[in-house]
Amino acid sequence: MSTSTVPFGDLAREYAAIRAEVDAAVAAVLARGRFLLGEEGEGFEREFAEWLGVEHVVACASGTEALALALLALGVGPGDEVLLPANTCVPTATGIRMTGATPVPVDIDPATLMMDPARARAAVARRTRAVIPVHLYGSPADLAPLLQLGVPVVEDCAQAHGARYAGRKVGTFGVLACFSFYPSKNLGAYGDAGAVATSDTGLAKQLRMLRQYGQRTRYVHEIQGLNSRMDELQAAILRVKLRHLDAWNRRRAEIAAIYAREVRGVQIPAVTAGGESAHHLFPVLSDRRDELLAHLGRRGVTALIHYPVPLHLQPSYRAWGLGPGAFPVAEAAAGRLVSLPLFPQLTEAEIAAVVSAVLEFHG
Questions:
Q1: Terminal CA-to-CA distance of the chain, rounded, Å?
Q2: Whether CATH 3.40.640.10 fits 11-106+114-239
Q3: I need a surface site. Which of 239, 294, 321, 330 has the fewest CB within 10 A?
Q4: Is the peptide bond before 307 cis (omega within 30 degrees of 0)?
Q5: How many whole angstroms separate alpha carbon 308 and alpha carbon 331?
Q6: Cβ–Cβ under 8 Å, residues 88 and 134
């Protein structure tokens, strides 16, 4: 048994590399004494919008609330339905439920593991008010056919900061796009944070009211809203980290290329045609997934499953009445998928250890 450990992620390494920048940014916020809706938040919104290629970014408290805000801005509410991929993480469905709407899962493409556009078209019904393609693992969903469904597209970019589709960054195709800055993301805060991106000025104004109790003028509440604001400390940290994001993404791509070239005995999901992954995760599919996961652990390699239980089989969603077999592609993937360690600060020795452990398992 190996005594060394390859971590799945290590944010302490990231902080060590940018410590001076982060500490200075945090100290400046503390010295100013303003902690909400100040110059750091405004600066981050402006800089992230420029990096992404949209007109407006509205920062908020989390990626989950970003989804809720986006749907509320579109008027989605009780009695409405919103399509989402059956293999996404529960927070996507949570954001929908926060509006009172009903999540409607759609099965996935077996090659890419992204929402299947043909199945999405079949799922569109009278009450469908939006579709949320999730760019899982850092890879882009097949957006072109989804944009032709006749309902608003709200992109879930929580795992895809910097991914591209048809030459453009994801987050620039839907009428709205939602980002999470959970600490482990390609661009992560040191706590919860999120944002909604759009080039629609009217929706941006609506979002700014929604995140602040429905008000534009203090104590005048024009609509019913939420309390979902990104604090100044997180905004300051994200401004620092945004300067490093492109370099970190290039390093992720280098590591992913090594894995793709050298690992054997597993299936690597395809990237959507015309797409470019941001390599948030490196998922592989194995018919002996649990055995592989145990073997990696014995060799000191930390691997995780994203995600072991599809939405419709979660206890919290039993009311949907959708049992095993309802979404066979998503269910099959959930039983075979394992994610290998991938983060920019992985060392060459750690990368080699991951490859060696996978190859050893397959003889």
A1: 17
A2: yes
A3: 321
A4: yes
A5: 9
A6: yes
Q: Name the token pair of 11.
A: 């944010």
Please give the Cα distance from 283 to 280 (Å, whole number): 10
> What are the structural domain ranges in the chain?
11-106+114-239, 245-361
Q: What angle do CA 129, 124, 273 make, to 5 degrees?
A: 100
Would you give the DSSP letter of residue 304?
B
CB 115 within 8 A of CB 109: yes
CATH 3.90.1150.10 given to domain 245-361: yes
- CA–CA separation, 301 vs 295, rounded Å? 9
CA distance 75 to 80: 10
Compute the distance between CA of residue 178 and CA of residue 171 in angstroms, rounded to an integer. 7
Per-residue pLDDT of the chain (363 residues; tens, 9 = 90+): 455 699 999 999 999 999 999 999 999 999 999 999 999 999 999 999 999 999 999 999 999 999 999 999 999 999 999 999 999 999 999 999 999 999 999 999 999 999 999 999 999 999 999 999 999 999 999 999 999 999 999 999 999 999 999 999 999 999 999 999 999 999 999 999 999 999 999 999 999 999 999 999 999 999 999 999 999 999 999 999 999 999 999 999 999 999 999 999 999 999 999 999 999 999 999 999 999 999 999 999 999 999 999 999 999 999 999 999 999 999 999 999 999 999 999 999 999 999 999 999 998
